[in-house]
Amino acid sequence: MRAAQAAKEGAKLKEVMEVVNKDIPRVGFLAAFDTLEYLRRGGRIGRAQALLGSMLKINPLITLKDGLVEAAGRTRSRSKAIDQLYDYVAGYSHIEELSVGDTACPEEAGALCERLGAIFPRERIYHSKMTPVIGTHTGPGLLLVAILGDK
Fold this sequence. Notes:
With about 150 residues, this protein is an alpha+beta fold. The protein has 7 helices and 6 strands; from the N terminus they run ααβααββαβαβαβ.
């Protein structure tokens, strides 16, 4: 968002890249899945793992670390997964930008935005829909938070 703002204000490509490179270490990301089925379909987990996860109602959490997707835990219910997203944001001492993204769960995303309004001004929370490509790999029910700030 800051890179887009710099470009909009007339920054050259090199200057936009400087903004991006400066902010990368300060970006946090946590996502919760509603189902493991689409990860199985995409070959990221096996059939047995997906079946067991469905039976136990496991909601995996992922993050990005050094540009790579990494497991960040799992919860046994959707509400606990959403609590984890909230707690992740609450763990930041200073937030400059905050975004909530979703695939086909706008009510949950809206409720999370409202809840996060206690931590960060609600009118500044950017709510976005994930692209069809992301949705294909994650399925409906992906809910994520992305933060620019300091822990």
